[in-house]
């Protein structure tokens, strides 16, 4: 049985019923609580109830951190709109939307000099939310983030005109994606235009890719739907015109980290930060202390925002977090991976009190 609605085995039906029961406490705040939505998470973890529940609960935290419920109203900056090479264009032979990612047009260095990495990620999360909306309109039915937070929406990942080194690069990332996702990767060879037509009918495929679709003005690339990117003009580079004043400066020694404690007194407070580094990139993450009054290692605290490295020496980073519980939240600047170079960090942190809407939601629960 496929595990889709209408094609469930008795054991899969029992798993779905139990999964719905296990998630009763959050059903009201899920993006959707129908069987189509819940089965996506079950299929992603082979109907393992515990793993599926863990995955969905982590996703709910992720949605809150990224404010995904409001992301379709968010507008990316001009440089991202113009030079992020991607777009939705047409549907495959079964009605699924097709998303194009034009790697050869990606000026990653130029983008990272112009906007924060977080904005580029948000742009791609926004694309995935648009994809889901299109899927719902069609039938009710991107890689570690795609798997972790948008399971079972990837039908095929089709690679065309891949460079010679692509197989080497793909082998390097294979350990980090599931076997199910690896099976969905299709690499087409020299006759890729003919092969693509097996997946997408000609009238849904741009002329540029071997189909017959064009823009209203006859453009074969369908530029109104697909952004082909290109080199980012230097006038977009933020270091040319951004001068931010920060409240604090500190040096994070080689092989060490810096922890900045922030006491949150009420659930619903918003923790906001902005930082820049000098001397290279810097790791950053947010943690919640499990013991008061003493310094804890990262592994001893609860991870709230996963630590990752940011090119804050190129573009200032900023972000915010709605604190779901009171406690001491730790902003951790991580330089443990650098055994040679210290990093200089400038940062500003502020805490905003919860708004009335959030307080009313808390009272309901």
UniProtKB/TrEMBL annotation:
Domain GOLD positions: 220-351
Domain CRAL-TRIO: 76-217
PROSITE patterns noted in UniProt: CRAL_TRIO, GOLD
Superkingdom of the organism of origin: Eukaryota
Pfam families the UniProt entry points to: CRAL_TRIO, CRAL_TRIO_N
Gene3D superfamilies linked to this entry: CRAL-TRIO lipid binding domain, GOLD domain
Protein name per UniProt: SEC14-like protein 6 isoform X2
Organism annotation: Odocoileus virginianus
